[in-house]
Specification:
178 residues; mainly alpha; two-stranded antiparallel sheet; 8 helices; heme binding
Length: 178
């Protein structure tokens, strides 16, 4: 194989980052199909013409072990070897593979637009607690902060007075007067 311009360790570190993406239990040694597809998309291996998402799924199935649901880094390199001539037509196998590696090296899973907050006038209007009516109004205080359990459930008054009694807490004074 020709001397590489991109080191395999850079490709492997990207492989590990994608392998661990979205999975707290992942070690980075194996990658599932979903993350493989994400890597192919984020690193622009999928170009929509020569390599499509279907190709990615087919190659993933081809390189993984029969019963396995994940691929190792070795199998990942094998998958790239499959993609290289399709993605870079007219290049030698080595050249194409090098370009595949350079697409991947140093990349990380992109989380573009994943946690953006929707800023629409409708959302602001619907989440403004001061405009709530009926029983929903009871669940928030004047500042718009939720009251928690007290706002959802009828908490029984265990003071010993009849509910809605205006002179609540005045018993002691009446007893003293007598």
């Amino acid at each position: 194989m020709a001397e590489s311009s991109v080191s395999l360790s850079e490709v492997e570190s990207s492989f590990q980052k994608f392998a661990m993406h979205g999975d707290t239990k992942a070690t980075g040694k194996e990658m599932n199909g979903k993350n493989f597809a994400k890597l192919c998309k984020d690193c622009h291996i999928i170009d929509g013409k020569n390599v499509t998402t279907t190709d990615v799924d087919i190659v993933f199935s081809k390189v993984k072990a029969k019963s396995a649901r994940v691929i190792t880094f070795e199998q990942f390199k094998q998958a790239l070897t499959e993609f290289a001539p399709k993605r870079f037509k007219g290049k030698s196998k080595e050249e194409a593979l090098q370009q595949m590696y350079s697409l991947i090296a140093g990349k990380e899973p992109a989380n573009v637009g994943v946690t953006k907050v929707a800023k629409a006038a409708a959302v602001d209007r619907l989440t403004d607690a001061s405009k709530y009516t009926g029983s929903h109004k009871e669940r928030f205080d004047d500042s718009g902060k939720g009251k928690g359990k007290a706002g959802r459930e009828d908490v029984p008054d265990t003071s010993g007075y009849v509910s809605a009694y205006k002179g609540s807490g005045s018993y002691e004074e009446k007893v003293k007067e007598a």
